[in-house]
Structures are given as C-alpha cells and as structure tokens.
C-alpha cells in the first residue's frame, strides 16, 4: 500500500487532483467556520451581484450564495462519496462472486450484470424517483447505487477470471484455504488498482446522477446541495435575468470535484493498465528515440 | 449472420426487467399513485378514464398474475395506456410526437462526437506522452466527469443569453411552417447547435479515451510494424492499419453509452426547452403523468437494446473473428 501511495504522489496529475478533492472536502468539513450564517437565511436583497458583504452575490430569495455553496458541498460530497462506495462494494462483490465461482453462479450474475448495463439509467432513475415522490438523500443514494453497479462488476469479473487459475490461487486452494479467504485475502489485493479506479469512477457518476436528479426537482428542496441550488436557480430564471453568479457557483463546485476526481482516475487507470502509462519515463524514451532517428537520418 | 443466443438472452432479460419495474414499482410504492392521477385529471375524470387508470395501476380486485398478464397483453398490442396530462391522447401518441426530435439530436451528437473523439484518440495514442496527448487525454477524462446539466446551463448562458448567438428554446422558429424549405431546415439547424454542443463533450471524452486505449494496444501489433516496415507514410499506417481496427472497442462502448446519452439528452432538452422525449418526460414527471413516464422507460430501453443489437451485427461483419469466437 505504501508503494502505491508513493506511486500516486510521483504523478503530477494525481497530486493536483488529490489537492483539489481534499480542499473541497475540508471546505465541506469546516462549513460552520467558513460560513457561519444559516445558508437558508435571507440576508440581502434579491439577486445582488457579488460584493464585499456577499462574496458570491445573493439568490432570488436573497440568500447568500457563498454560504449555500459551502454548505451545499457537504451534502453533495457526502452523498456522492457514500453512493460511490456503495456502488463499488456492490459491483466488486458481484464481480468477485461471478468470476471466482464460475459455473451457473457466473452465468446468472453475468446475465444480470449485462442486462442492467443496457437499461438506460437516467430514465429508470426518473421513473423510480417520480413514483417515490420527493426523495431524501438516502433514497437517492439507494436508487443510484442499485442501477449503476454493473460497470464495476464487469471489470472486476474479467480480472477475477484472469486471476482465478494463477498459481498462487491454485496453491491456496490446494492448501485448503476456505473460499472466502482465497477471495478476500489472495485475490482481492490484486484488484486494488481496479477497485480504486471503480471507486473514483463511481463517485463521479454518483455526483453527476445526483445533480441531475436534484436539478430535475426530485431532491428535497429544503436540503441545500449543489443540485438543488441549480434547481432553484433554474426556477427563479437566474439565467434569463443574467444572475450568472447564482448558477456559476454550484457549476464551479461540480466541475472542480469532477476535475479533481478525474485527474486521480487518469492516474489509477495508468497504474491498473501499465500499457497506458505516459509519465516522464516514456517521454524521455520518446525523446531519445527521436534523437536516434535524427542521428540515423543525418548519418545516411 | 447469426447472433449468439447469449446476447439475445441479455436483451431479453433487460427488456423483461424494464417491464417488471414498470409493472411492480407503482404497486409497491406507499400511497396510491392512482388517487394522485385522478386528482390530476380534474374535471376530465370520466368513469371510463378512472377505470382505465385503476386497471393499469393495480387498484382493482384481481390476482396479481392476472393483472400482469393483462399488462403484457396491452404491451404486445402497443397499448401503453392513456396520458394523464393530455388525457384523451394515448401514451404512444404523446411519445410519438417527440421521439423524432430526440433521435435527431442524439444521432447528430453521436456522429459529430464520433468523428472528433476517435480522431483525437488516434492522434493522442500515436504521439503517446507527447504534448498533444498530455493535454487532450486528461481533458477528455475531465469532460466525462462534468454533468450535462452544468454544460447545458453554461452553454445556454454564454451563447444564448450573454452573446445571443443562438436561439434559446424550441426546435425551430415557431413562426415558420414545417416544410421542405431552406429557411425551415436552417432554423432547425440553428436551434440544434447548442443542444448538440452540450451533448458532445461527454461523448467526445468517452470516444477519445476508449480510442486512445485501444489504439495503444493495436499499435503494438505486428501488422502495424509490418506497415511501417513496408515504408508506408505515417498517415497511411495510422488510419489504414491501426485506427481501423482500434475502432472496434469504440463501437461496443458506443452501444453501452447510449443509455447515458439519453440521460444527457433529457437534461439538455429541458434546459433548452427542446421538444423531444426528455422534455415530455419532464413535464410528465412534474404532472405525475405515470403512464407517460413508464412508456418513456420502455421506449428508451427498446432504443438502447436496438442499438446494441445493431452494433452486434455490425461487429460481426467488421470483425469476422468475433462471430466464431463468441459462439
């Protein structure tokens, strides 16, 4: 694990991504200090542009956009991360079970995975959410997680299939280790880069899906999140009246999380598939190659 | 051309899943959606209408399996029920009005993004680790992470409201009569620019990433080395030898992404007030018009399955090895 962290920190992209994500999480964590006012309180006139007293302006209802932005990060990030973890656990377990046990279990699980994979998620989410009425964060979490585990399950399954017949697994089986131990102690550690990739991807997806649902009005309107901020901005026609700050802030938050996480994801992808690496070493190699080609050309 | 049974089984299960969700979710939810819908109908709630809604959502004295059989019979005859919001109209009529616009939007966006995304991916893989690659590839991954809502709202504000370059809302100028005239097509084109540009970044990002990955592994193949050894030009090797074969995983990915594209188009249509399926779904969900929402899910599932089937067929033609390997 230590070497994994080191590998991560050696990549410039990963460090930038990590800094962005950690900074946003800290902002969410210290929301009461950064924005001591209640985000739902009316503190000014409607749609004030950014000024010293309201750094990011006010909404149609005269609420401070900065407070909403800081407090919204809490719910958006918490739901995003929790859902991402949930999706990853579900996908990894299903993929592991199918890939390791094979046979009929695998057949059924693989069929299920592929079937859920081709069902369009957002229409399904909207259907479930509209029958449930206005749904709280927990319900949103459950709905997103239950419809989006197949990506991870597929990746995990194919990797497990490749590992299942490797010598160390066969050896463990011969020694008589129980199945759960082979799966979790022998195979799982080899899947870590893949699981990291899956986790980051799932968090990104969860944040996108959550924002979409809340923007469509399925979130709890009293709960301040970046998605409901967008919903309120849309409903108060902030765009048409030119109150850009009202939409720019939640958008900026979502884009920043996306940027940070995807930079991390890019690095995990390169760790999981060494073939894709394009770090300093490869650049040096390419340069040397070109140089040699030039020399050969000159010598001819 | 034979399709592996397994693929068909997957599509069958997926479609069945959508049907089962459609049938059971309203019956399992706490509180009755039926009362809500009857209230929604207001003065139009004739006894016949109430009866139809009740039968569809299980508020009748009948065993569950009989209701399910009735439901399946309805589906088989393309009877998806009546819309609550546009009452005398059926769901099929309501969806039929808007499906064309969504198909137009989605197909245009996919074609546009496919050209740009695969080219960018091929170029990035060709000069892997170069300046182009280290800028474009992380940027593509970032594009995948930005929700369509954000892009739509930002595009609408920048090009629609602040710069006033493009019209905001509708699929064509409402003062024009739809017809085979240049002004009409021009208007349709102009109105589609912003929605298409909104849908594209995600797709371009996905295509670029997949293309780059698959191109990198293809570039290691012997036939690429062979092409180079023959002294072919760089472009001939890149497009004639490598990119052609690297396209295959992109095709698979395209079919799987279609669900996400529909998700994006729903949001895009709502933001730009574009009269497609997404907007219909949105108005239906605001009005709690459950039959329309259900029909929507079925239609979009069918479209996704159809596209997957199409890709399977194309795949078998483009790569003859697959047909044999899969069975």
UniProtKB/TrEMBL annotation, chain A:
Residues 73-265 form the ABC transmembrane type-1 domain. The chain crosses the membrane at residues 14-35, 77-102, 122-149, 183-208, 247-268. It is a multi-pass membrane protein. PROSITE patterns: ABC_TM1 (PS50928). GO terms for cellular component: plasma membrane. It comes from the Bacteria. SUPFAM superfamilies: MetI-like. One of its GO terms (molecular function) is dipeptide transmembrane transporter activity. Keywords: Cell membrane, Membrane, Peptide transport, Protein transport, Transmembrane, Transmembrane helix, Transport. The keyword Transmembrane helix applies. One of its GO terms (biological process) is protein transport. InterPro entries: BP-dependent_transpt_permease, MetI-like, MetI-like_sf, OppC_N. It is found in: Cell membrane. Pfam families: BPD_transp_1 (PF00528), OppC_N (PF12911). Belongs to the binding-protein-dependent transport system permease family. This is Peptide/nickel transport system permease protein. It comes from Phyllobacterium myrsinacearum.
TrEMBL record, chain B:
Pfam families: BPD_transp_1. InterPro entries: MetI-like, MetI-like_sf. It is found in: Cell membrane. One of its GO terms (cellular component) is plasma membrane. The keyword Hydrolase does not apply. Keywords: Membrane, Transmembrane, Transmembrane helix, Transport. The chain crosses the membrane at residues 7-25, 101-126, 138-162, 182-205, 254-277, 297-318. Residues 99-311 form the ABC transmembrane type-1 domain. One of its GO terms (biological process) is transmembrane transport. It is a multi-pass membrane protein. It comes from the Bacteria. Belongs to the binding-protein-dependent transport system permease family. This is Peptide/nickel transport system permease protein. It comes from Phyllobacterium myrsinacearum.
């Amino acid at each position: 694990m230590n070497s994994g962290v080191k590998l991560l920190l050696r990549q410039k992209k990963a460090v930038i991504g990590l800094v962005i994500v950690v900074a946003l999480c800290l902002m969410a964590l210290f929301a009461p200090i950064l924005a001591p006012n209640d985000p739902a309180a009316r503190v000014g006139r409607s749609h004030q542009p950014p000024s010293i007293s309201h750094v990011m302006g006010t909404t149609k209802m005269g609420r401070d956009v900065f407070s909403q932005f800081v407090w919204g990060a809490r719910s958006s990030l918490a739901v995003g991360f929790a859902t991402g973890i949930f999706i990853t656990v579900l996908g990894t377990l299903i993929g592991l079970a199918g890939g390791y046990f094979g046979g009929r279990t695998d057949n059924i699980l693989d069929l299920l995975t592929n079937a859920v994979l081709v069902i369009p998620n957002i229409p399904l989410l909207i259907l479930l959410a509209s029958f449930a009425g206005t749904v709280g964060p927990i319900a949103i979490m459950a709905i997103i997680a239950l419809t989006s585990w197949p990506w991870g399950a597929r990746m995990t399954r194919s990797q497990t299939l490749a590992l299942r017949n490797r010598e160390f697994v066969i050896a463990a089986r011969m020694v008589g280790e129980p199945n759960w131990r082979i799966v979790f102690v022998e195979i799982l550690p080899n899947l870590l880069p893949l699981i990291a990739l899956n986790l980051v991807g799932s968090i990104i997806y969860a944040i996108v899906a959550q924002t979409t649902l809340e923007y469509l009005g399925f979130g709890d309107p009293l709960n301040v999140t970046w998605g409901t901020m967008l919903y309120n901005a849309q409903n108060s026609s902030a765009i048409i009246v030119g109150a850009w700050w009202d939409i720019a802030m939640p958008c900026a938050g979502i884009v920043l999380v996306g940027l940070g996480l995807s930079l991390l994801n890019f690095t995990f992808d390169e760790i999981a598939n060494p073939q894709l690496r394009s770090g300093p070493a490869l650049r040096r190699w390419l340069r040397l190659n070109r140089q040699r080609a030039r020399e050969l050309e000159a010598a001819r | 051309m034979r399709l592996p049974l397994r693929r068909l089984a997957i599509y069958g299960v997926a479609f069945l899943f959508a049907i089962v969700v459609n049938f059971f979710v309203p019956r399992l939810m706490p509180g009755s959606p039926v009362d809500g819908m009857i209230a929604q109908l207001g003065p139009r709630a004739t006894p016949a209408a109430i009866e139809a809604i009740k039968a569809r959502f299980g508020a009748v004295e009948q065993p569950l399996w009989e209701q399910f059989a009735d439901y399946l019979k309805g589906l088989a005859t393309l009877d998806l029920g009546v819309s609550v919001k546009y009452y005398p109209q059926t769901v099929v009529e309501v969806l039929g009005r808007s499906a064309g616009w969504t198909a137009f939007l989605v197909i245009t966006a996919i074609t546009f993004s496919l050209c740009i995304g695969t080219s960018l991916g091929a170029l990035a893989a060709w000069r892997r680790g170069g300046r182009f690659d280290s800028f474009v590839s992380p940027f593509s991954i970032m594009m995948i992470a930005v929700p369509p809502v954000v892009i739509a709202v930002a595009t609408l504000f920048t090009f629609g409201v602040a710069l006033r370059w493009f019209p905001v809302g509708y699929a064509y100028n409402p003062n024009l009569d739809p017809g085979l005239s240049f002004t009409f097509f021009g208007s349709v084109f102009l109105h589609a620019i912003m929605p298409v540009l909104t849908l594209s970044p995600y797709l371009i990002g996905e295509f670029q990433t997949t293309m780059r990955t698959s191109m990198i592994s293809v570039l290691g193949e012997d036939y690429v080395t062979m092409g180079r050894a023959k002294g072919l030009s760089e472009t001939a090797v890149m497009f004639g030898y490598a990119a052609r074969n690297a396209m295959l995983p992109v095709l698979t990915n395209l079919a799987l992404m279609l669900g996400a594209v529909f998700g994006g188009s729903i949001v895009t249509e709502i933001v730009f007030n574009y009269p497609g399926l997404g907007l219909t779904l949105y108005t239906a969900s605001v009005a709690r018009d459950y039959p329309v929402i259900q029909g929507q899910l079925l239609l979009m599932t069918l479209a996704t399955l159809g596209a997957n089937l199409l890709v399977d067929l194309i795949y078998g033609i483009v790569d003859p090895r697959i047909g044999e390997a899969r069975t």
